[in-house]
Amino acid sequence: MNRRTILNGVLAGSIVPAAHIGTATLENEPGDAETADTEPTDCEDTPVSVRIVELPETITGGALLEWSVEVENPTEQSIRPTIEYTVDGEPAGNITLTVDPGETERPFSASYRTEPVPEADTVTVRVEANGDADERTVRLRATDELDPELQFPDPELAVQPETTVHFEVGAVDPDAFQTTTWWIDGETVGDTLAAPWQGIYYVEQDAHYWQETFGTDETDGTDETNATYEVVAGIDVDGEQYRANWTITVTPTGLESPTIDAARPAPGPLEISPEGTTLEIDVSDPDGTLERVVWRLSQADRLLGVSEISGASDTATLSIDSGRCHTCQLIPWVITSNGTVTVDPLWDVMDPGIDPDSADSLEL
Length: 364
Fold this sequence. Notes:
Layout: E1 4-6, H1 8-11, E2 23-26, E3 49-54, E4 58-60, E5 64-72, E6 82-87, E7 90-97, E8 104-105, E9 110-113, E10 121-129, E11 132-141, E12 144-145, E13 151-152, E14 156-159, E15 163-170, E16 178-184, E17 187-191, H2 196-205, E18 207-214, E19 228-237, E20 240-250, E21 259-264, E22 268-271, E23 277-284, E24 290-297, E25 302-308, E26 313-320, E27 329-336, E28 341-343, E29 347-350
Parallel strand pairs: 2-7, 4-11, 12-20, 14-20, 22-29
Antiparallel strand pairs: 1-18, 3-5, 5-8, 5-9, 6-7, 6-10, 10-11, 13-15, 15-18, 16-17, 16-19, 19-20, 21-23, 23-26, 24-25, 24-27, 27-28, 27-29
C-alpha cells in the first residue's frame, strides 16, 4: 500500500530514480541487415543462456551497484531476448538485444542505487531471460552517519495527518560533488540529479532537500493515524557514502503545518512595476516555531530570497526589482524550526511588455 502523498507541484521532476531503472534496445550494427530468412526470433520459449559476469562482492550501502551480463545464443537462428534485472525482487530495468546463432553478447552495464544501511546487509541481483536465470549476492558495508549538524529537522518528529515536512541534508564538503537520493520505507522517491531546482537550491542554501506530506491513504479508506514512516537520505560525496534518517509518526496530537494568513498584493496575477514591487505575507504557526520563508520563482528556477521569521506569527517581505519572467509562479515556502512547511503558489508574474514566447520571458 502506498501511504504517501507526493507534492507534485513543488517537486516536479524530483522523483526520478531513472538513473538506476530503465529499459534499452540494442540494434544491429550497420551492415548486419537481416533478411526474411534470418529475422531474429523473440519468442519467450527460445533457448538462451544468461549469466552475471561482473559484479562486486562488497560495496558500501548507498553506493551505485553496477554489473555486467553475458547472453549466449545456443540455437542456429538469430534471437532477440529481453533480459530482466531485479535487485532484492524489485525491478531494476531491462534490455532487449539481438544475438546471432552460436554467439555471445555482453550488453552495456546495468546499475542500481543501493539504500544506505546502518549495519552490514546484503542485496541480491538477479537476471532472467527466456526461462534462464542467474543471481548473485552482494555484501553491503554499514554506511557512515551524516554529521547531525548537517541534518534538518530533528530525527524524531510527530505530525498531524496531512502535514508536510521539509527535510534537508547539508554540504559535507563545499568543494566536492554531492548528490542525494531519498527513500521512504525502503522505496526510492527522489534523486537530486533529476531537477535543476535541486541544484540551484544546493548552491544557494548549501543543502539538498525533500518535501513529503504524511497522512491518510484515501484510495482504500485506510486510516493511517499513528502510522510511522522511515525517511532515509543517502548522500554521495565524490564516491564517499553518508546516511541520514528520520522517523515520522502521524498522530492527532502531532505538529501542524504553518499557515499563510494574508498576502499583499492579493494572490493571483502580479504585474511588477518598473520601480519594483514589495510582497508581504502574514504567517503563523500554532506551535510557535516559525523560522524562514523561502521565495521560489518557478519555471526560471530561481531562489529570490530567504526571509527570517520567528514566533507564532510574523510578516515576511520580499522586494522585486524587475518583472521579466512572464507567467512564472512566485511560491513562498513557510518553514518552521520543527521542519513543518506550507508551500503556496500565490502569484503569477505578468509583464504585458514581454512576449511569452521570447527568451526574455524567463528572465528575472
